[in-house]
Amino acid sequence: MSSKRIEIVEVGPRDGLQSESQVLSTDHKVEFVRRLTAAGLRRIEVASFVNPKRVPQMADAEAVLAALAPDAAQARFIGLVLNVKGFERARAAGCTEVGMAIAATESFSQRNQGCSVDEGIASWLEIAALARAAGIRAQVTISTVFGCPFEGEVSPARVVEIAERLAAGQPDEIAIADTIGVAVPTQVTGLLRALQPALPKTKWRAHFHNTRNTGLANAYAAAEAGVSALDASCGGIGGCPFAPAATGNIPTEDLIYMLHRMGRDTGVDLPALIDTSRWLQSVLQHPVPGMVVKAGLFPKTAA
Length: 303
Ligand code: MG
Known about the structure:
Layout: E1 7-10, H1 12-18, H2 26-38, E2 43-49, H3 61-68, E3 76-81, H4 84-93, E4 97-103, H5 106-113, H6 117-134, E5 137-143, H7 156-167, E6 174-178, H8 185-198, E7 204-208, H9 215-225, E8 229-232, E9 238-240, E10 243-248, H10 252-261, H11 270-284, H12 292-295
Parallel strand pairs: 1-2, 1-8, 2-3, 3-4, 4-5, 5-6, 6-7, 7-8
Antiparallel strand pairs: 9-10
The structure holds magnesium ion.
Residues 15, 179, 207, 209, 249 line the site of magnesium ion.
């Protein structure tokens, strides 16, 4: 049985915006995060501390964190880091939580972060120790766990082996990510059933993309399998301007609509989040992929 409360990690300001072709102003990003906080989201991935030449949308990471400093008591602002240098930037910027990503496959690790899986794990262990000493929460995501664009299928045994090595860093949470949106719900259930007994004390989070329209079904499977948190992006923004078939994360409003109607509690004010999604459409000047923002609430007075 899954517990009633489930935490939502809003990744729109990072994973979502990172794939938008239009670079948002720092003021718009800060307003986006403030609206999300006002809607009740308490963990928000706000920036990535990576090479700004590779990800121009995240070049103002420090400025976004500085502007959000007065709001830091209301939510944990997460910075994504891929190496120790990135961690040092996130710490200096005032992130209260850092998330690192480790690829499940060698090819994706080399292409995405320019290092081997072993080197990535070594960096994670170093970052985890530095974060603990600094009083910063640190979690780690294993990406491409359900499939790799270069190597194809990924075996659950491989993911379990990586998770066990990451757990040596005492992460606050380990996330499994369907980075390219290929998973189906039975895979999600199967992987969590392999991971949970291997690491019984670990808190699990799951991250899905809706590339093949299975994102919400995968989130349902993960929620039922007992993850304590799910990632989602407001409006379902994301997708890559250079890959027409790519789509964003699962839309936060759609996920929350489903969870609330299932009797799960998220602490998020759904009408306020829908308003934020509408605001986001006006800023981005294009419709967002989310469905609930178009269809509206049911019943109309639901929260
Ligand atoms: Mg992602």
